[in-house]
Amino acid sequence: MSRIQSPMIESLRQNRTLRSRALMGLLAVFIASVLLNRTVDLDHQVEEPPALLNEPDLFMTHASISQINEEGNLTSKISADRFTHYPLTDVTTLELPRVALYTPNLTGPWTISSTKGRLLGVSVYRKQSVELWSAVRAEKSNPDGSKTTFITDALNVYPSENLAESDTPVTIFTGNTQTKAAKLRANLDQDTFLFNSNATQRVVTTIQFQP
């Protein structure tokens, strides 16, 4: 009797071992699939949200922003057909922007316009500025009735300093004088201009004499 039962007991033991190994294998596959699925979900979460982080939180149409000094005098006015603010970078894009800079010593304000632009908010890394590009034009009326005008492709304006800078070729017209330069730094509250040249564009002034 014992001889007959011994092979049966041994077979049962082997079957239990095989079932245990099969269960362990299935458990390992299940755990791996859970971990893989979790990893895929985490990757999916990391990839998608950044596109939504810097979504605009404010926009205005046909609006303007004015700055007044301590004496209550208007110093600058920034207007545009559309303002769109992005909170993550604190940048406001501008459609058809126009900047007017006022100083008590001048007969009229400097008016600067372009097709595109953006307003950069002040921070520890930068000062407030308006970046303008595409068909930039600045103009001011003079006491004698003439106008001072300059055109360029891009211009950085610092309203609180009445300062404008351009690293792109610029042409300025004053009365019967035309000046071309590679770069420009303009103190607009004093009507002073610093022109710079480079390897391809020298500072060239042309005077047109009236007959």
Helix content: 10-25%
Strand content range: over 45%
N- to C-terminal distance: 138 Å
Shape: elongated
Order of helices and strands: HHEEEEEEEEEEEEEE
What number of structural domains do the residues give?
A: 2
CATH architecture of the largest domain, by name, is: Sandwich
Named CATH topology of the largest domain: lipopolysaccharide transport protein A fold
Largest sheet: 6 strands, antiparallel, barrel
Number of helices: 2
The CATH first-level class of the largest domain comes to: Mainly Beta
- The counted number of beta strands is 14
Helix and strand content put the structural class at alpha+beta
Average pLDDT confidence is 82
Assembly level: single chain
Spans where pLDDT lies below 50 across 5 or more residues: 1-5, 38-46
Radius of gyration: 35 Å
The CATH H-level homologous superfamily of the largest domain: Lipopolysaccharide (LPS) transport protein A like domain
Biggest sheet, spatial arrangement of strands: 2-3-6-7-5-4
Describe the structure using short key phrases:
disordered N terminus; six-stranded antiparallel beta barrel; lipopolysaccharide transport protein A fold; 2 helices; 24% helix; alpha+beta; elongated
Characterization of the model:
With 211 residues, the protein is an alpha+beta fold. It has two domains: 2-51; 54-207, Lipopolysaccharide (LPS) transport protein A like domain (lipopolysaccharide transport protein A fold, Sandwich), CATH 2.60.450. Helix content is 24%, strand content 45%. Strands 2-3-6-7-5-4 form a six-stranded antiparallel barrel. The longest helix is centred in the first third of the chain and has 46 residues, at 2-47. The model is unreliable at 1-5 and 38-46 (pLDDT under 50).
